[in-house]
Amino acid sequence: MFTKAHAHDDDKKVWLGTDEVQTLLDAPDDENKRLAYALGVRCGLRSEEVTEVRPDDIVETDAGTFLLVREGKGDTYRETPIPNSLANTIRAAARFRSEPATDPVVTSESSTPGVSTRTLRRWIETTRRHLATDTGEDRWHHLSFHDLRRTWATQLKGADVDALLVCDWGGWDDLDTFLDHYRGTYAPDVQARERQKVDWL
Q1: Is residue 82 part of a domain?
Q2: How far is Cα 53 from Cα 79, in angstroms, rounded to an integer?
Q3: Boundaries of domain holding 126
Q4: Is residue 195 in some structural domain?
Q5: Other CB atoms closer than 10 Å to residue 25's CB: what's the count?
Q6: What residues are paired with 111 via a beta bridge?
Q7: Cα end-to-end distance, the chain, whole Å
Q8: How far apart are CA 114 and CA 123, in angstroms?
Q9: CATH code of 27's domain
Q10: Phi, psi of 195, rounded to the nearest 5 degrees
Q11: Is residue 199 part of a domain?
């Protein structure tokens, strides 16, 4: 886990390592929370975008399985890759619930379909408190839902995915915004890989 101070407030930006991503995804006792977190950290969705995901947004293309983000920030459309396992989980959950393919996949305890961004913030606040207590790692306290998107972008770049393609998938208009605000330090496994290139480290 890496943290960096925000420019204009007292909180910190957080980037999770590979193991910490899995710890986060394993933490919730509720499938809706797991889906929401996975959509953030595995697809790079903003919290508002997570609330809008529907089963019929998952499509098969020549490039693999993708998630259609029909109205991203600024009402812009984009397509981002989605892991097959997550796509299958979403499809199975929709069939199990007998919901129309046009209903939101992430729901709350209420009878109303979907969740609010406020609910997502509440979920992540509860999860981060539990993780900080369970792991003894205080930096979990700084985790926000937006840090999942930050982690996603950094992990793609750490895997040598072309930065311009990351911008397309993430819905960034320009490379400078991505580099300045989202790409963080590299994950521990990437740093370990790079250290192996230097004899004396």
Answers
A1: yes
A2: 12
A3: 2-152
A4: no
A5: 16
A6: none
A7: 21
A8: 14
A9: 1.10.443.10
A10: -60, -35
A11: no
Residues 6+ apart with CB under 8 A from 111: none
Strand, coil or helix: 164: helix
Using a cut of 0.70, tell me whether the model's pTM lies above it: yes
Task: State the number of CA atoms in the 13 A half-sphere of 9 facing the CB.
Answer: 4
DSSP 82-119: --HHHHHHHHHHHHHHT--TTS-S---SSSSSS--HHH
Asked if the structure places residue 188 within a domain, the reply is no
**Is the Cβ–Cβ distance between 14 and 144 less than 8 Å?**
yes
Q: Which residue has the tokens 């998952």?
A: 58
Q: What is the pLDDT of residues 124-178, one digit of tens each?
A: 999 999 999 999 999 999 999 999 999 999 888 888 899 889 999 999 888 887 7
The span from the CA of 172 to the CA of 177, in Å, is 7
Mind listing the pLDDT tens digit for each residue in 178-193?
A: 776 666 666 667 777 8
H/E element, 65? strand 64-69
Reading the block at residue 127, the tokens are: 């999860």
Rounded CA-CA distance 38/45 in Å is 9
Instruction: Tell me if 52 sits within 8 A of 73, measured CB to CB.
Output: no
Q: How many domains does the chain have?
A: 1
Both tokens assigned to 172: 């960034």
Question: Measured between alpha carbons, how far is residue 142 from residues 11, 103, 120, 149 in Å?
Answer: 7, 32, 15, 14
